[in-house]
Fold each of these.
Amino acid sequence: MKYYSTNHKAAPATLEEAVKKGLAPDKGLYMPERINRLPEGFIDNIGDMDFHTIATAVATSFFGEDIPAGDIGKIVRDTLCFDTPAVHIHDNIWSLELFHGPTLAFKDVGGRFMARMLSYFIAREDSRRKVTVIVATSGDTGSAVANGFLGVDGIDVIVLYPEGKVSEIQEKQFTTLGQNITALEVAGNFDDCQRLVKSAFMDPDLNRILTLTSANSINVARFLPQAFYYFNAYAQLKREGKAENVVFCVPSGNFGNITAGLMAWKMGLPVKRFIAANNRNDVFLEYLQTGIYRPRASVQTIANAMDVGDPSNFARVMDLYGNSVEAVRKDISGCRYTDDEIRETIAGVQGKYGYLLDPHGACGYQGLKDNLHPDETGIFLETAHPAKFKDTVESILGKEIGIPAKLQEFMKGEKKSIKMSADFGDFKNYLKTRV
Ligand SMILES: *Cc1c(COP(=O)(O)O)cnc(C)c1O
């Protein structure tokens, strides 16, 4: 299957090219030229299928022309070493827990899948030229990508993060790994990290000597696999007899996660509608209200993985809906929550139902609470484990929360990072030493 750029200037790419490049040369995002509908019988029988079977069928629908069935099956099995349970909270509200992976955030699915697909393509090459993945992170992306690529043959990962601006738990998840993972601690903020990464992609010297790629959700191999768990959520609701009028509420930052849900819908997943939950970074809600998209600098909130002022996957949403705000409004509504509202939700749901939300999932829960109709079943994506935001959550509840063993393991490791200035010349010199 070919992948076109949302800017329509670059030539269509093969899957392999789209995965290796990340962003199209015209700075657009790659989209599959077709979204195949799954056979009717698939949805009828989905309640009898396990996660691997469902995910393999979805992956085959996207990648089956380009990767042999056996290899797709293996990539899916290796990726999904954990489940995504749908947990009933109260009444018609459910939580889709996406935090049971190695770094306890939903990005594990896309990160692990992309690592394995890239490694599949590299292994087929004669030259076997090493690929260098560079990724800027404000916290969660770095850990999911680094852990997803850990020990994967032929790939080097360089994580850039702003010195002193990520939590200790987050930092430990990508600075203690060693092997093919290097962490660069940049004397600057997240925007500086992102600027360094973008400059490297555009630098002709570096691109001559290195094969550089991005592992952000612009990459099709990271974003499309996120459709898997929407189907798996539906299968679980179906087994519970709750699969009528399903509404997904997605805590959104760069809008990769919700766009994968829209793809699942176009593949035939029976969904009634979507809600995009925002924190104070509410450009999307404003777009729904005014019809005008006005990107702006992000503001800092306690749901920091959603602190995005110009969501990169907005281009994909526009592409899916032919740039029509009326069409978008029919399928997706929006909501936004302040830090105080997020705090209230976390405390309230813990007190009333004994369920602990993280600050991102709290936006998802509240989006359903405020908008769900009585005849609908609402399911929000619980995108990270609350313990990843230990200090915030503990200050809200006024008591300590347990830390899962997986996170405690990371805390034991010894931090190793390379200090780097925010100057591109320094970063470029460093990359030259990595050939
Ligand atoms: C990345 C992230 C989000 C936002 O997901 P997008 O795909 O960027 O919209 C939400 N919650 C958590 C915990 C995240 O790490």
Note: The first strand starts at residue 3 and ends at 5.
Amino acid sequence: MKQRNGELGRRALASSGGLVAGYAALAVAELVSVAVRPEASPVTAVGGAVIDRTPAAVKDWAIRQFGTDDKLVLQLGILGVLAVLAGVLGLLGLRYRRSASAGVLLFGVAGAVAATGRPDTVGAVDAVPSLVGAVAGAGVLYVLLARLPVGAGGGTGQGAGRKTEGSEPEREPESAEPERSSEPERSSGSGPGRRGFLMAAGAVTAVSTGAGLWGRRLNASASVDAEASRAAVALPAPDSPAPRLPRGVDLKLPGLTPYRTPTRDFYRVDTALTVPRLDAGRWRLRIHGKGVRNPLTLDFDALLRRRLIERDATMTCVSNEVGGPYVGSARWLGVPLAEVLREAGVRPPSQGGRADQLVARSVDGMTLGTPVETVMDGRDAMLVVGMNGEPLPFEHGFPVRMLVPGLYGYVSACKWLQDLELTTFAAYDTYWVERKWARKAPIKTESRIDTPRPFASLKAGSVTVAGVAWAQHKGIERVEVRVDDGGWHEAELAAQGPVDTWRQWMWRWPAKPGTHTLQVRATDRTGATQTSARARPIPDGASGHHSVVVTVT
Ligand SMILES: Nc1nc2c(c(=O)[nH]1)N[C@H]1C(S)=C(S)[C@@H](COP(=O)(O)O)O[C@H]1N2
Ligand SMILES: [Mo]
């Protein structure tokens, strides 16, 4: 029984040795990533690689399940898997010390492959943090395993019995022999062997924590420059201010989405595990490619010196389910993109231009493709520098992002923009297009019920049903509501603000007791009524009527 316990204790120690080794590897990698770049640290790199390879449907599901926490969940998941594997390696090390240590190196190789395979990789140096971390982890595991107290060598327990039958090809005599001859107390896992192991493991953990925290600090201080540069931005007044909003664009009803989304409530959708924090002073935008007679490189000050416009516009994510939250409206400040393109000598295809696709590239390797024709058709496509009166928040693309009213974000709204290339749709597929999303994706006319909430219990009588409807760059003409597949009732519309923004609506429902389904549909100013045909977000946006079930008593 004692020997049984001893064997269990050894296993627990060995697997904790694996954990400590894994922890040391990640900590060292974090520190080394300071010298390379934070994105090359293994968990970030592997997470990014997972995101790149996740089928759109799963990604969609993850966004739905976890919302903006999807990335935290992913990182915790990776850490969980690593912890299990590290523990298993430690156990394996009971018998095969060298192989277990070599196994740690394999993880390093996996991390290196992930880091150098990401779209934003800067090359082979991205492999360095993972590899150095793995070497450190392998060394730690090897040394710790050597300090394991010897198990019930020669004992009668089942595990121990097997062990003495000589299946320990890599067992080092130095580590095994002296301890094997030691007193039986050690095999119970409480003797000096155990203490020595725990002390070594504790020391490694302490040093790793120090290294990891130091690395974090240094990585964080790089972002201090970025914060300082953002704090120093003084946005000029727009040359063309936002048109005055008509009275009554916001009905200000309880439960109804406000006309302008406060920045802190604005949805965020991107693939960035660490939000890029750029220094505006070092930012450059290159404009080049097919049919660009005059390639340009602009810095941030050059951008601010240009003609600035301020516009209200509603952005929507193609991943938004019917009734979903990934839609928001803000007041954007920026440079008209068509003017910049014209200065670069670009002509739209309708005027003989050779490029029909404008590919925007971000610093994190994301690519988004927008029709050149749309960017230059007179709408307020912008290189955005300000959001709701402030420099862009880092999460929303500081220092510069793109915005093209009327198109879903993934084909227009590149954050952390650094490069604009004129090309063709035939020649180049962007990130999401490679993942089966549509090449072209104008926003579908949609409407949403904000209040009452699903499954609300209401009192019979007059109930205010209200929500928003959007058909960016077209405008909303009509919104209708119906109850339980009855006839459509015309809702009252808030004033239509600029045509690139959504429009609020409300309807007073004489509610009778029972369980009821409310449905909404919108008609845009081209006369098109939103389809009742249900479609998932992939490939070009969800469709169908939003409905809400409520109980009236
Ligand atoms: N660099 C980069 N830009 C990006 C994305 C991204 O993943 N990376 N996502 C796009 C998508 S799908 C949408 S809907 C919008 C969302 O912008 P927001 O996060 O500011 O709301 O950003 C777009 N720009
Ligand atoms: Mo999106």
Note: The first strand starts at residue 284 and ends at 289.
